[in-house]
Structures are given as C-alpha cells and as structure tokens.
Design a protein that fits this description.
Layout lengths: L1 H22 L4 E5 L6 H6 L3 E5 L5 H7 L9 H12 L10 E6 L2 H13 L4 E5 L6 H22 L5 H23 L10 H10 L5 H15 L12 E8 L6 H7 L5 E9 L14 H10 L12 H14 L4 E7 L3 H18 L3 E6 L5 H20 L1
Helix pairs in contact: 1-9, 3-4, 4-5, 6-11, 7-9
The protein binds iron/sulfur cluster (SF4).
Length: 385
C-alpha cells in the first residue's frame, strides 16, 4: 500500500529530521512506555514527544548486563541499553526523559540514565489506585511535569494549544480504533503484525502526519480482506508489554497463515486507543482523568484483575476470538502471578483456552515456542471445525 510506504519513508527519515529540528532549537521530550505520560502537554509546549517503545533483541539485554541488575526485566534493560549502544538515535536525542514509575524495573532504568548520562530525567509518580486521593496526587504530578516541560522549552503552555493537542491526539486514537475494529471482520482487514507496526509508528511519527496517514489507511483498508486459508483461529494477545521490534510472537502465531491475531491488550508499548481525553472543561483535570482512570488498570495496580478481566472479556466477545496468548515478559512479576488467575478465568468464564509464552528477548526462544504455538493452534482448529 502506498500509504504504508509513505509511513515507512517518514520513519526512516525521522531521526535525521529530528536532529535538524533540534539544531534549530526544537526540544525533544521522550518518555518511557505505559499509558501515563500526556503527550498532549509536550506537543502543546511546542516540543516533540517521542515514546520509547523499542525492544525484542537479546543483544540489547546482554549489553545492559554491564550496568543493570540481572533480575530486571528485558524491556527495562533495553530502555537503557539502546542509549549506551548508540545504535538507536531516538534514545539519545532527547532534552528531557519523562519516566513514569509503575514498577521498580523502569525506576532502575531511569537511575541508569541519571548515573551514566547527562540526560535530564523527570520521574512521574504513578499511584497504584485511582480513587479521588490518587487522582489528586496524579493531577499534582502532572502539574509538576507541566512546569518541568515549560522550563525545558522556555515558554508557558497555552490553554488553547493544549486543547488543540488534545483534539489532535483524540483523532489519532479514534482512527487507530476504527482501523483496529476492521479486524472484527472475518477475515480481518489487516494482520495483527501490520496493526502493531502502525500502532508503534504512532509513538515516533509526527502526530499531524500520523493522523493523515491513519485517515488514508482507514479508507484503503475498508475494502481489503486478508486471504482466507482454511480454518484460521482468531487470537487475543495480552500481557504486560509489546515492544517495537519484538514481533516474534506475531511470526509464531500468524506465520504460514496459521492464525490471525485480531486484537491485543498490553500495558506498555501499545498506544491505548479505546478511550479519549474529554475535550470540554479543565484540560489538565481531563488529562489526569484519562491517563489514570480511563483504561483498564494494569497488572501493577491494586485490585486490577477484575476490571481488566471484564475489559478482556468484552474484547474477546467483540472480536470473536477462539483462544488467548498470554505474552509474558520474563521477570515481570505482577503479570506473571496474574497469568495463573487469568488462565482459569478464560477457561471457566469464557471457555477460551490460553497459552502462556515467556520471553527474555532471546533468539533461542523461537524454536521451542514454535512447537507449543503450533500445537495450540492445531487444537484451536480442531475445536473450530
Ligand atoms: S514489562 Fe513488567 S517489569 Fe518490565 S517494565 Fe513493564 S511492567 Fe515493569
């Protein structure tokens, strides 16, 4: 598709374009994955927001070993390794790094930036509940973030600019949602891997350009259907994290036309597009609401299991899935513990089998996970027939 080619070209040139803009005085504000940092605020300040969501390579995990404790998860290690390896320009270009602190692993990655680099780090406290008290705390944390951004950029964020940014990002989320919903069809209009690459692109691309691309893509995809190749199970993919480049799970599931990943729910790495920021009223309060309350609580939050199971149950029904993949990032302890509960839940409440796959971003995982995935998909096919 011509639109996807344009997007690839934009992403290919983006680091060079960013460097040029930086030389002309533009500020780049990067942030770690997780649905807590309001990009709208960064964009409204006239800075360039970049979401750091790369991962999936064992070499990067190994490189982090010289700096970080072995008991940290591969995603958090990658977030620092990519800075020291100096192979990924997004991880060195920033004037400020905003780190939401949902777990100790990202906290330690932020420590490394402070110890070993001169990159300015701002930690955004993330409460583990979302009642009134926590909402006020989070709104206050966002106020401090606003002051920090204004300090870096050297100007105040104007309310009108913030409202425009909210409108722009709402459009982006709406279009991602519309595109994602094209996968409720059977066969879906695009593969899980295609959707994931588009979703990941939205963290790096210029948001105005991204909205135009998503609009064109939506129009093109409305007429498209993937080829039907026998009985193809429809998969819901869930877990703590799906990083840009960590696409082995899609190759395993969708390779050789075996199955379709029709919907995914992950805490980090994937832009959440089901809920928007309210456009009327106090924009700061609306941002705090959206970024703390308006998505299914992640596994790191207290009492998160039931509300997330309800959200996943709705996705499973709406997208008519046949089975679930739980993609577990190694050493991500809260999701690991939850996975046992969810396996029972999917089985008993929804009659959906769940396969848990654990990843340390190691290339060797592919072989043994392939055997398990193939067997699981064969079982789903038999059930579906
Ligand atoms: S994958 Fe889990 S442990 Fe790693 S940064 Fe994310 S939430 Fe934390």
């Amino acid at each position: 598709m011509d639109t996807l080619r344009k997007l690839d070209e934009h992403l290919h040139n983006r680091p060079i374009d960013l460097k040029k803009m930086k030389e002309k005085g533009k500020k780049i504000i990067a942030y770690f994955a997780g649905e807590f940092v309001p990009e709208e605020m960064i964009y409204a300040a006239g800075a360039i927001p970049i979401g750091l969501v790369h991962g999936g390579s064992g070499e990067e995990v190994d490189a982090a070993g010289a700096y970080m404790h072995h008991a940290l998860c591969p995603f958090s290690k990658t977030q620092f390794a990519l800075c020291v390896l100096n192979q990924q320009p997004y991880y060195r270009l920033m004037d400020l790094l905003v780190v939401p602190v949902p777990c100790i692993h990202l906290h330690r990655a932020a420590d490394c930036y402070e110890y070993y680099t001169d990159i300015d780090v701002f930690r955004l406290g993330v409460p583990h509940q979302s009642m009134e008290l926590e909402l006020n705390y989070f709104a206050d944390a966002q106020r401090r973030l606003k002051e920090k951004i204004e300090g870096v950029v050297g100007t105040e964020i104007k309310i009108e600019e913030l409202k425009k940014a909210i409108f722009l990002y709402n459009r982006m989320r709406n279009l991602l949602k519309q595109i994602s919903l094209l996968r409720t069809q059977d066969p879906p209009a695009l593969s899980g891997l295609e959707f994931m690459k588009i979703n990941h692109a939205s963290f790096y691309a210029d948001p105005t350009f991204m909205v135009e691309i998503l609009q064109s893509l939506y129009e093109e995809l409305q007429e498209r259907r993937l080829e039907r190749n026998g009985v193809k199970p429809r998969i819901l993919l869930t877990g703590p994290n799906l990083a840009r480049g960590d696409y082995k799970i899609f190759e395993l599931a969708e390779g050789e036309g075996k199955a379709d990943v029709v919907v995914e729910e992950a805490f980090e790495g994937v832009r959440f597009y089901w809920q928007n920021v309210e456009e009327d009223g106090d924009p700061y309060q609306n941002l705090a609401q959206r970024y703390l309350r308006k998505f299914p609580p992640a596994g790191i939050m207290r009492k998160s299991t039931i509300p997330r199971s309800q959200f996943l149950s709705k996705l499973a029904k709406d997208f008519e899935v046949d089975g679930v993949f739980w993609y577990q990032i190694r050493l991500c302890e809260c999701y690991d513990m939850e996975s046992h509960w969810f396996k029972d839940y999917f089985d008993k409440e929804l009659s959906l089998p769940m396969l848990k796959l654990v990843s340390n971003y190691d290339a060797l995982e592919f072989g043994y996970n392939k055997t398990r995935v193939d067997t699981f998909i064969d079982m789903l096919k038999t059930k579906k027939r």
